[in-house]
C-alpha cells in the first residue's frame, strides 16, 4: 500500500516589482486605504479616493502597491504579524491543542473586531479576485497556517510537521468561513469562538490520535 504523500507546498504568489520608497508614505497610504475601504465599501473604493485621503498622487500608490486588490490583500496580511508576536509571548499558557487553536483565532479576531466594517469589506472584496489575487490570498493563509502549525509542534507535537500542517488547513478554512458569516451578523468575539470550538475539538482530537499512531508505528518499525 502506497504511503500518502504530504500536502504539496503551494507555489508562492508572484511578487510585484514595487518600490519600497519612504516608509512613512507607505504607512500613510496603507492607513488611508483602510479608512476609505471601511467608509466606502469594497466596490466603491478606488485608487483615486485612497490617494485623496492619503494626500498623494494615484501614480504614487500604483508605484507602492500596484492595484487596489494588492493593497486590500496587504491589509489582510497585516493580521498575521500580531498573531506571530502573540505566540511568542503566550505559547506556554496553552494547556491543550484546542486551547492553542482557539487562542490563535481569538488573537486574530480581537484585531479584526477593532474595525469589523473594514474586515467585512476585505472579505467582500474576495468575491471578485482574479487568479493572481487568489494566489496571493492563499500565500497569506499559508503564513497563518505555518504560525499555528509551528505553535502546535513547539508546544505539543515536536517533529510532527506533516500532521500539524495537515490539521491546520481545515482549521483555517473553518475560521475564514465562520469569520465571513459572523461579520454579516455582527457577532461578538465570544460567539465566533463558541461556534468554532466543536469543530476545533474534533480536529484536534483527530490530530492527537494520528500523532499517537505515527509514534507507535515508529516505535515498532
What does this entry look like structurally?
With 221 residues, the chain is mainly α. It is 74% helix and 0% strand. It contains ten helices and no strands. Helix 4 packs parallel to helix 8 (131-155). The protein starts with 22 loop residues before the first helix and ends with a helix. Mean pLDDT is 84; it is low at 9-17.
Short description:
74% of the residues lie in helices and 0% in strands.
How are the elements arranged and paired?
Elements: H1 23-40, H2 47-54, H3 58-65, H4 68-77, H5 80-90, H6 97-112, H7 116-125, H8 131-155, H9 161-185, H10 189-220
Helix pairs in contact: 1-2, 1-4, 1-7, 2-3, 4-8, 5-6, 5-8, 6-8, 6-10, 8-9, 9-10
Amino acid at each position: 500500500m502506497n504511503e500518502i504523500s504530504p500536502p504539496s507546498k503551494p507555489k508562492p504568489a508572484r511578487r510585484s516589482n514595487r518600490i519600497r520608497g519612504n516608509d512613512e508614505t507607505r504607512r500613510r497610504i496603507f492607513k488611508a486605504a483602510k479608512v476609505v475601504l471601511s467608509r466606502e465599501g469594497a466596490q466603491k473604493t478606488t485608487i483615486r479616493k485612497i490617494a485623496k485621503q492619503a494626500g498623494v498622487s494615484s501614480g504614487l500608490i500604483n508605484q507602492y502597491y500596484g492595484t487596489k486588490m494588492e493593497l486590500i490583500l496587504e491589509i489582510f496580511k497585516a493580521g498575521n504579524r500580531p498573531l506571530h508576536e502573540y505566540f511568542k509571548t503566550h505559547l506556554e499558557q496553552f494547556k491543550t491543542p484546542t486551547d492553542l487553536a482557539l487562542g490563535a483565532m481569538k488573537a486574530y479576531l480581537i484585531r479584526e473586531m477593532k474595525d469589523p466594517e473594514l474586515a467585512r469589506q476585505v472579505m467582500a472584496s474576495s468575491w471578485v479576485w482574479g487568479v493572481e489575487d487568489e494566489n496571493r490570498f492563499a500565500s497569506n493563509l499559508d503564513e497563518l497556517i505555518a504560525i499555528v502549525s509551528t505553535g502546535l509542534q513547539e508546544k505539543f507535537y515536536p517533529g510532527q510537521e506533516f500532521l500539524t500542517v495537515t490539521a491546520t488547513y481545515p482549521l483555517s478554512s473553518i475560521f475564514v468561513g465562520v469569520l465571513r458569516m459572523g461579520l454579516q451578523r455582527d457577532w461578538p468575539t465570544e460567539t465566533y469562538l463558541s461556534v468554532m470550538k466543536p469543530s476545533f475539538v474534533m480536529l484536534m482530537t483527530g490530530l492527537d490520535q494520528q500523532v499517537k499512531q505515527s509514534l507507535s508505528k515508529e516505535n515498532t518499525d
